[in-house]
Amino acid sequence: MLPRRREPDLAGLAAFTLDPGGRIVSWSVTATALFGHQAHAAIGHDVCDVLMTGPGQRGLVGHALAEVAAGRVWAATVAGGSLGEGRFAFRWEPMAGPGGAVLAVVQRAWPQRAPSWLSEATARIGSSLDLAETAAEVADAAVPWFGDAVAIYVIERLLAADELASPQAGPGAAVRRLAARLSGQVEAGTGTALPTGEVVVLGADSLRSQAMATGKPVLSSGGPKVAAGCTSFLAMPLIARGAVVGCAVFGRAPTSPAFDPGDVALADALAARAAVGIDNARLYDRERRTALALQRGLLPGRPDIPAGMEVAHAYLPVGDHVVGGDWHDIVRLPDGRAALIVGDAMGHGPEAAAVMVQLRTAAHTLAELGLPPGQVLRKLDAMAAAMDTAALDTAATDTMAAGAAAPFATCVYAVIDPSGGASWIVQAGHLPPVLVLPGGATEVLDLPPGLPLGLGAGSFQVTRFSLPPGATLALYTDGLVESRTRPIDDGLAALRGALSSALAGPASTLDGACRTVTQMLCEHGEDDITLMLARIRQ
């Protein structure tokens, strides 16, 4: 969501009214204070003879009156003529009642507004790490307080190719327009707004090319324009961490004073803050997309569930991590049975994920070979024991006894035959599965716990059990039931209660139950959470 734009204060604010033809009907004391004209010298006169006497301003008034006559509000920033020095923000709107009167509200926008405008703008820019929002904050800050038009560009290769260093920044470079703003008078002159997202290849005579190639501001009263209707331009390079990442181009209409060297210092302060904010947002977006791509690659794809079975699963990484040490998998075996696997590698984040993905891949491959459950865990145990302990994160290694081998992961491996309900299950240091019977009664399966993978246990005891139709087997990781503030026995009791409640109804679905249970228990979670539910269709 875009930050709320600050409304101007009431200093230098005035109001007056016009008839539909543009003659002044009423003139306030504040209008006299702002413009110096007494009421008797203003009322009854055409506004173009009292205030709007600069070049092109009579046509601007005609357009404004037409807009108000059509029931629309007209707003623009105007300078020059009898307005004197500075720029004034005008807002004209139709008044209720007969006669078509026009209410005009005007405030001095420049130069008195400059100090607060700049401080507010620099404080606001970069409040979001969203690239589009950050660029929009810059554009909103510039119009109307500094210019009548602005466009913000970033070098395309920094976005499309995710380059960290600035590539070519001169003629021939492609830039993407991230944001643009036009004042009312400029937008009326162009007939259209500048589209965001458009990629432009810069020519040698482009103000943008010159600013980015030299790393210096470029002032111009001609040349390629940021928008039709502007006659004065200022192009500022956006420089972050010593590299040019893009540029900002400001424009002013003929009714506004042309840019001069004094404006460059203000634009430079704005551009410096904009460059850092935009580059931070760009780098954050790059890292976020990289993490999401890793997550998609590390998590299992669409499961191949045998006919006669229903399986649902949920995964929630802890904290700000998008990948972690938990994994789950479903493997269709050659004889129509299904292998269900849930594991938990020690630690969090990318270190644990590096261990997890190796074990998950190996477990999937071993399961597809049709090896007995105990043999699958023995081979995983040997593989984990041979892994480099440097793959563990610091928190995990601190818990190991001196000279001891690293307990890389816990795992539970179940094989279910949907044709008869016969099932086999084996654990490696994992928490026991929960069986939910039709009607909601729950039972924690009493299984030999086994040692975690990586300790070289050598053997794992397989237990045979029956999974009757309509009953649900719940496999999970300790993040669902254990935390520093909740003992594991209390967590298991909470899990049994949540499963019973979510699966008791005749219309309950496994997907819905997965969502319900994880939402009920995740508030205590301090670790990755995985839950897998499986049952034989009735």
SSE layout and pairing:
Layout lengths: L12 E6 L5 E4 L1 H7 L3 H4 L4 H4 L6 H13 L4 E6 L7 E8 L7 E9 L3 H11 L6 H12 L6 E7 H5 L13 E9 L1 H7 L8 E3 L5 H8 L3 E3 L11 E9 L2 E10 L8 H38 L10 E8 L9 E7 L5 E8 L3 H20 L4 H13 L8 H4 L11 E8 L5 E7 L5 E3 L5 E3 L18 E4 L5 E5 L11 H16 L6 H12 L7 E8 L2
Antiparallel strand pairs: 1-2, 1-5, 3-4, 4-5, 6-7, 6-11, 7-8, 9-10, 10-11, 12-21, 13-14, 14-15, 15-16, 16-19, 17-18, 17-20, 20-21
Helix pairs in contact: 5-6, 6-10, 11-12, 14-15
List keywords for this structure.
25% strand, 15 helices, 5-stranded antiparallel beta sheet, Phosphatase 2c, domain 1, 3 domains, alpha+beta, elongated
Question: Would you write up a description of this structure?
Answer:
- The protein has helices spanning 29-35, 39-42, 47-50, 57-69, 114-124, 131-142, 156-160, 184-190, 207-214, 261-298, 349-368, 373-385, 394-397, 488-503, 510-521; strands at residues 13-18, 24-27, 74-79, 87-94, 102-110, 149-155, 174-182, 199-201, 218-220, 232-240, 243-252, 309-316, 326-332, 338-345, 409-416, 422-428, 434-436, 442-444, 463-466, 472-476, 529-536.
- With 538 residues, the chain is α+β, with helices and mostly antiparallel strands.
- The protein has 3 domains: 13-109, PAS domain (Beta-Lactamase, 2-Layer Sandwich), CATH 3.30.450.20; 114-292, 2-Layer Sandwich (Beta-Lactamase); 301-536, Phosphatase 2c, domain 1 (4-Layer Sandwich), CATH 3.60.40.10.
- It has a 6-stranded antiparallel sheet, with helices on both faces. Strands 2-1-5-4-3 form a 5-stranded antiparallel sheet. Strands 12-21-20-17-18 form a 5-stranded antiparallel sheet, covered by helices on one side.
- Helix 5 (114-124) packs antiparallel against helix 6.
- The longest helix has 38 residues, at 261-298.
- It is elongated, with a radius of gyration of 34 Å.
- The two termini are 48 Å apart.
- Mean pLDDT is 81; it is low at 1-10, 111-115 and 390-407.
